[in-house]
Amino acid sequence: MQKHHTFAGIFSGLAAAAIWGGMYVVSKVVLEVIPPFSLLTLRLVMGAMALGIVIYFRNKRATVKVAPTKEFFWQSFLVGFVGYGISLGFQFVGTKLSTASNGSLVTSATPAFVLLFAPFLLGEKSTPRRIIALVVSTLGVLAVIDPRNAELSSSLFWGNMSLLAAALTWALYSVLVRKVSKSMDLLTSSTIMLLGGLPSSIAFGIWEINTQGIGEITWGIIGGLLFLGIISTAIAMFLWNYAFAELPAAVASLTFFAQPVVGTLLGWFFLAEKITPLFLAGGILISIGILIATRE
After folding, report:
1. What is the number of domains present in the chain?
2. Range of the domain at 265
């Protein structure tokens, strides 16, 4: 891997994961007013519009303008349906039927699933170095989230299964992004991918509004929507896709572990939650794992 592309890819993946790790406070406030799938629909629409504006101004400056083909469109759309239609849907259901600690624990399996899909879909070999990096980083994230807080009661079974399905399908989406990006413009395909999540989110969103309604939309909620739509969706999703376009999937996936670290740090900064020695050890292990993976 070239050093420039490696650094840019790692930085992009970490930045995306950090944004997602810090968006839960905003999401919690907005979700008290707007139901999950309705919120997802708004996020996807705003995200696609934001990236679409960037594409418009980019094409305005370009001397040669290339329109996406039907094959280009549908490949990107279907990849987006897997990531934003199916995976995020499972995540919403799992979060509702399970617990936050279970969600952190189960979704931390995503990089392992990436390692599973990459050889079959991309022809990337699971080298000993990448396996060691995954093991070290996984131990680090387990220290950060502390699996002793997880609940495995039978009443949470379907919630935990939904979370597992979310981790599995997000890994599949991430690997497919790398596959698609080899022959397509990443900015255009990322925009189309966001549109791919709309059919299911709109359908469930309409049902939510009819059954639950929407609360009072204040300026604070509008600010939260702009953050979730532009920062957490348009920018973070593009950065995540860029990481998988630039790096081997097994390496890019390790940046996913930045989410619980950032979430804990924000809890410490804003909510005066304690930083434990386990958290510090976990952060060090995650960093070592990423360094091991990028030394190939």
Report:
1. 1
2. 3-294
